[in-house]
Amino acid sequence: MASEQTTRWSAYFGRSPALDGLGLRCLGVGLQDGHPAPVVDRVLEHYALVHIESGAGTLVSAGEQHGVMPGSLFWLLPGIRHSYGPDERGWRERWLLFDGPAVDVFLRVGLITAESPLRRTAGTRALLDGFARIRTLAEQRSALSEAAIAVTLQEMILATSGSGPSPQRADDHQLVDRARDLATSPLTVDQIAARLGVTGAELRRAIRSETGLAAKPYLLGVRIEIAQSMLADSDARVSQIAHRCGYDDPGYFSRAFTGYVGISPTQFREQQQR
User: Fold this and answer.
1) What is the pLDDT of residue 141?
2) Residue pair 82/48 in contact by the 8 Å Cβ criterion
3) Are 48 and 78 in contact (CB under 8 A)?
4) Which of 98, 152, 164, 165 could potentially form a cystine with 169 if both were Cys, beta carbons 3.0 to 4.6 Å apart?
5) E strands along 100-256, which residues?
6) pLDDT band at 230 (very low <50, low <70, confident <90, very high)
7) What distances in angstroms separate CA 273 from CA 81, 100, 179, 233, 270, one per listed residue?
8) Contacts of 99 (CB under 8 A, 6+ apart)
9) Is 162 a residue whose pLDDT tops 60?
10) For residues 207 and 218, what is the distance between their CA atoms, to the nearest angstrom?
């Protein structure tokens, strides 16, 4: 009976080597409106985005149960067992299947997380518009339309950044921002942490969570990026820039800069001034 009360539409796409350079592949898209049969103990080999426009139900992911409300979206990650479905009133569900190397970036910046798979989103309009565009493009069945689908999918994933972060992620983001402000001071990671009132372990965990990098290379990158701006936009001597970026030894600064950028500070400045 449930399936007879459900409107369905779906389209699936093969893997086209010609589109590998885009970094993101849409493997399928679909709509279910009504009382679809629940998904039970499923494990995917790819990623999925599920958006619930109306209705309510339940999601179980990695053994944790979540209540799904209208306007929610949830991520399904490969290798993680999950179940989900609407309550007795049904729901209107849209879904996308995708993979590709660009997903690693979305994971590092926290757009897609296994720890917090369910979100309320402020990007509902963008998601609905994206689904509508992909449905139209899916009917064309060409390499160009599939490339446009991949671009639309990326825009939709970015639109989910309007979702409210968890309190822990909000705290991490604020802590990393404050650490970034101290990156050009001649302080170690532990000294920066102490200045911010947290332990070194807490700061390292927050930076790893927010950026996907260890604390030391992340702070080095911030220093070098600031130095690049100074080299390009000012006439300050390299030794002065080194000091402003927290380096007492200009020679050490030059070696660190060269190791990070691939050319010396002087060569970088010459390139930018051509």
Assistant:
1) 75
2) no
3) no
4) 165
5) 118-120
6) very high
7) 54, 37, 31, 9, 5
8) 24, 25, 27, 46, 47, 78
9) no
10) 8
- CA dist., res. 239 & res. 243, Å (int): 6
Residue type, 79: G
132-159 per-position pLDDT tens digit: 999 999 888 788 888 899 999 998 888 8
What CATH class has 3-162? Answer: mainly beta
Q: Which regions of the chain carry the CATH code 2.60.120.280?
A: 3-162
169: number of CA atoms within 13 Å, CB side? 16
Angle between helices 215-233 and 250-261 in degrees, nearest 10: 100
Q: Are 95 and 156 in contact (CB under 8 A)?
A: no
Q: Residue 175 corresponds to which tokens in the numbers above?
A: 């802590």
Q: For residues 126 and 61, give the distance between their C-alpha atoms in angstroms, rounded to a whole number.
A: 25
* 67: alpha, beta or left? (left if phi > 0; alpha if psi -120 to 50): beta
d(CA 180, CA 223): 9
Domain with CATH 1.10.10.60 in the chain: 167-272
The two structure tokens encoding residue 188: 């170690």
CA–CA distance, 124 with 163 (Å, rounded to integer): 10
Which CATH homologous superfamily contains domain 167-272? Homeodomain-like (1.10.10.60)
Q: Which amino acid is at 153?
A: L
Residue 92 in 3-state DSSP?
Answer: strand
CB 218 within 8 A of CB 258: no
Mean pLDDT (whole number) for 181-204:
90
Local structure of 65: helix, strand or coil: strand
Residue 3 confidence (pLDDT) above 70: no
